[in-house]
UniProtKB/TrEMBL annotation:
Pfam families: STAS_2 (PF13466). Residues 1-21 are annotated as: Disordered. Residues 37-131 form the STAS domain. InterPro entries: MlaB-like_STAS (IPR058548), STAS_dom (IPR002645), STAS_dom_sf (IPR036513). Transmembrane segments: none annotated. This is STAS domain-containing protein. SUPFAM superfamilies: SpoIIaa-like. Residues 1-10 have a biased composition (Basic and acidic residues).
């Protein structure tokens, strides 16, 4: 008996993979009254509103917000403006926003737009292995 009525199964459908998001913004509690906001990717006019909302919400829920730019790959004028405006809003609310420096290209954007002096910038250096 042959199984001529059976045909070869189609290969399973594979959903097209989505490209990774160009910009991500997450936050977590960093102590009793601090929130860490971590950003990665490209911060431009598309991502700036998301960051603005996140920083605003963080400021409402903690006295100190730490904005970590170490995984940011690019930033444009709107991203710089968003961070500067959020820092000014934090000061006006008697709160603090600390910005962890990002890569050199990101740092240069703040300098080029004469914005670095308006931020509380800090460096965090990864500990070296003791061996």
């Amino acid at each position: 008996m042959t199984n001529s009525h059976l045909k070869e199964a189609d290969p399973p459908a594979v959903a097209p993979s989505k490209p990774p998001p160009r910009f991500t913004c997450t936050w977590c509690r960093g102590g009793v009254d601090a929130i860490w906001v971590h950003v990665s990717g490209e911060l431009d006019r598309e991502g700036a509103p998301k960051l603005a909302r996140t920083l605003h919400d963080a400021r409402l829920n903690a006295r100190m917000v730490v904005l970590d730019l170490r995984d940011l790959t690019e930033i444009d004028r709107s991203g710089v403006r968003t961070i500067v405006d959020a820092s000014a809003a934090a000061r006006a609310d008697h709160r603090r926003q600390v910005v962890v420096r990002g890569p050199a290209a990101v740092d240069r954007a703040f300098e080029r737009l004469d914005a670095a002096h308006r931020l509380d910038l800090i460096d965090i250096v990864a500990p070296t292995a003791v061996g």
